[in-house]
Structure formats: structure tokens, C-alpha cells
Design a protein that fits this description.
single chain; 255 residues; globular
């Protein structure tokens, strides 16, 4: 049986130079300026970003169930929703949520070519206040790290309750090592990665300063512990590059 060609990942190219000047956002926020260059920013700042988007679409194809929703929490400019929707041949309901109205505006533009077989709801809303429909897949990529630490388990518990038996959550995050010397080395390797993507040392340091106390990473063990506390039993790592991790967790299927 022939495999259908994999669709391209849709990125809107506006070069990220936000942290090259002195008027960079501090503290970091997902404002209109960031939304304008976000696709370039994540492509150059998150190792394996495109691989995570492709892998997400692959897992959704297997676990999506008709008459349920696919929820993209912290959807940003809609890249993952777009790729999943163009990969998935079954009709599906998509709910894409982001706190930033500027991100939702960009997502609306990107998702204008969504296949007619799908239904889409886009919400500029705080996910902590958003009712979650019955879902078979929840995607929360690079989003938990921006939520207050005290609210993360509560959100995972709500996701667990929204999932049908056998449904999955896909979580991608920047993580920290529980071992100080490992953390120091992964930080050095990560900053070298960003230099290789064309960022200057000044840009790297300014963005790190802007993200201080805004992006608060967990260790991998803390993520796994919260998923277990939320009710998930099957938890596995899908992908990891130094201090970037993608986890998959499944709600126990019915016997």
C-alpha cells in the first residue's frame, strides 16, 4: 500500500531580530512583535522543532477517534494544527487555544486553507478558563513551561478528564537537568546551537534575561510525576535533545 506524501510544514518567514536591538521585550511576552517573527524564532531556537511537529501528526493519525476533538493548547501561529489537519484524512474537530490574541490572529491567517473536511475553533483565551471538549488527542507543546507552577497539575488533570479512554496527550517542553553539572553542559550546548542558527551572543543573553522567571522549566521526572498524579499510567519519551523533551501519555483504554 502506497503512503500518501507528507505535507509541508507551513512556516511564515519573517526574520527574528527582536533581541538584536535595545528595545527587546522584557519580560518576554507573546506580543504582536513576537508573533510576527515567531515561526522563525521557534525554528531557530527549538532543536528538533520540525521533527516534533511531524511526529505529532504521525501520532495523531493513529490515536484520533471520530466524534472527538483534537485540542492544541498554546497553539501560537497554528503551525502544528495546520500540519496535523493537512496530514489527517479523517474529518476532525480542532480546538486551538492561545492566550495571545496576536498569535491567534497569525493562526487564523495560516489556517485559512484548512481542508473543508475539518471544523476549527480558534480561541484567544486563558486555557485555565477554557472548557475542554471530549477529546482523543491533546497537544501542549512548549506551553506548560509558561504557566504558573502551581497551575500545571490542575491543567493536566483537566486534560486527563477531557480525554476519552485510550486518548493521548503530547507534551513538549524545555527541561532542566536534576544534575547541576549536566545542566551547565546542556546550557552551553544549547547556546552553541543558537549561535549556529545565526543568533549573536548579545541576542542569546538578552533573550535569556527576558525569559528569566517567565519560562520556568521542570525536570523530566517532575513532568512524569505530574502526569502520574493526573491519572496517566502509560508515559513514554517520544523525543529528546539535551534540554528539550517530548513526552506522550495515554489515558488507560477500556478493557
Amino acid at each position: 500500500m502506497e503512503t500518501a506524501p507528507r505535507p509541508e510544514i507551513k512556516l511564515v518567514s519573517h526574520d527574528d531580530h527582536i533581541f538584536a536591538g535595545s528595545n527587546y521585550p522584557k519580560p518576554f511576552s507573546f506580543n504582536k512583535e513576537v508573533a510576527h517573527v515567531f515561526d522563525d524564532m521557534v525554528r531557530r531556537s527549538i532543536p528538533l522543532y520540525l521533527d516534533v511537529v511531524r511526529a505529532t501528526a504521525d501520532w495523531v493519525q493513529h490515536f484520533y477517534r471520530p466524534q472527538t476533538a483534537i485540542i492544541d493548547i498554546g497553539c501560537s501561529t497554528g503551525t502544528t494544527t495546520h500540519h496535523v489537519a493537512h496530514t489527517l484524512q479523517k474529518p476532525a474537530q480542532f480546538l486551538a487555544v492561545d492566550l495571545s490574541a496576536s498569535m491567534i490572529e497569525k493562526a487564523r491567517e495560516k489556517l485559512a486553507d484548512l481542508p473543508a473536511r475539518h471544523q476549527l475553533t480558534l480561541l484567544a483565551q486563558d486555557i485555565r478558563e477554557t472548557p475542554l471538549p471530549r477529546a482523543s488527542v491533546v497537544i501542549i507543546n512548549y506551553t506548560l513551561q509558561f504557566l504558573p507552577v502551581a497551575d500545571r497539575l490542575a491543567l493536566l488533570s483537566r486534560i486527563y478528564e477531557a480525554l476519552v479512554p485510550g486518548g493521548i496527550v503530547i507534551i513538549s517542553e524545555k527541561v532542566r537537568s536534576a544534575t547541576p553539572q549536566f545542566q551547565e553542559l546542556t546550557t552551553m550546548i544549547y547556546e552553541r546551537f543558537k549561535e549556529e542558527q545565526g543568533y549573536s551572543r548579545n541576542e542569546i543573553e538578552r533573550k535569556k534575561e527576558a525569559l528569566d522567571q517567565v519560562l520556568i522549566p521542570f525536570t523530566e521526572q517532575e513532568h512524569r510525576q505530574n502526569l502520574t498524579l493526573a491519572g496517566f499510567q502509560a508515559i513514554d519519551s517520544l523525543m529528546k535533545w539535551n534540554n528539550f523533551l517530548t513526552l506522550i501519555a495515554q489515558k488507560e483504554p477500556r478493557p
